[in-house]
Amino acid sequence: MKENGIIVRKYDSEKDFIGVEKVERRCEVGPSGKMSLFTDMLGDPICRVRHSPASLMLVAEIGEEEEKEIVGLIRGCVKTVTCGKKLSRNGKNDSSSNSNQHHHKTLPIYTKVAYVLGLRVSPSHRRLGIGQKLISEIENWFREMGAEYSYMATDKDNEASVKLFTEKCGYTKFRTPSILVQPVFAHRVKISKRVKIFQLTPSDAEILYRHRFSTIEFFPRDIDSVLNNKLSLGTFVAVLTDSDSDVLDVNQFLSTPPESWAVLSVWNCKEVFTLEVRGAPKIRRGLAKTTRLMDRAFPWLRIPSIPEVFKPFGLHFLYGIGGEGSKSAKLTKSLCGYAHNLAKENGCGVVATEIASCEPVKVGIPHWKSLSCPEDLWCIKRFGEDYSDGSVGDWTKSKPGLSIFVDPREF
């Protein structure tokens, strides 16, 4: 599409890489005198959508043939997720035990949803409608792919982004999950001896997630693709037990679950991108270094040291977090400790997750408030003209549930 001298077209990795890198660098200039978080995509501009079922990256170009310049870009992906739930027709006649009947009488309602991310416009070319053009063009592709909804995520304090999407592009504020970030310390986190942690195979993890999580909002229908991806480092279940077994029979677990249990999976973002905090004063850097030295010298003190975030660092993302029972939050804390130790072994700087603000096991997830975001704003839009309300009605008007599933492929 060409309008007012601006061409919006598909990203070409062979000729657009340098131009895209320039736009990314220009857009990541932090405010003077303040700390800012920078992202290095390790030479792969489409890394954050590469593992999605369908994805696209567009660039906005301006100028004549010999002097063309990329001044904007946007990424998007399309997938099928849960948007609601319904009672199964034979739920009342289910002959299974009472403990199972509760889990089999509801079924997920799926819809195709698109996700907008990585919108960038060079500072020198803002307020020219380029961002809106990029959004419009990628939405055209979303419609071609059969998406019924499109959503995006942004910092709730990013007024420019919120205004663009809600006032000019027809999006409405939808959900406000929390991003929780925990530093990776120099010492290992101690796991209670009363907690037994099992690692599930991808196939067993799929069975567990489909049985217990498939009716949660944004649960991906292709969860098997997520769990079998090379970046997924494993799914772990924690229970209170004295068993010496290192294997969990998932079918027996589902038929006769323990009173309390918790589960989470780990995604290796370190292989996709790295982060770096810039603009920190020397005194802050010095204090952070001191905490690390103390932690390494006296690991038994378990000093909560600040990792080396002033150089590029990687992270592990925790997804599919949940559980049941009165001890589920405590078991979640043990799983997070286990995930912390795994991240330490892999040389990561932080462990992060994103969950619903009212998620029951949230209280068990260790995090630093100074690094976390209590409200990550999600906005949504319905391409509703050609769709019926169906079983769930208009999803954009639905109330939030207790939980939400954040796909690690687009974090």
Automatic annotation (TrEMBL):
Q: Which residues form the N-acetyltransferase domain?
A: 6-196
The GO molecular function terms of this record are: acyltransferase activity, transferring groups other than amino-acyl groups
Q: Any idea which UniProt keywords this protein has?
A: Acyltransferase, Transferase
Pfam families, per the entry: Acetyltransf_1 (PF00583)
> Does the keyword Electron transport belong to this entry?
no
Instruction: Give the UniProt family note.
Output: Belongs to the acetyltransferase family.
What name does UniProt use for this protein? N-acetyltransferase domain-containing protein
Provide the species name: Papaver somniferum
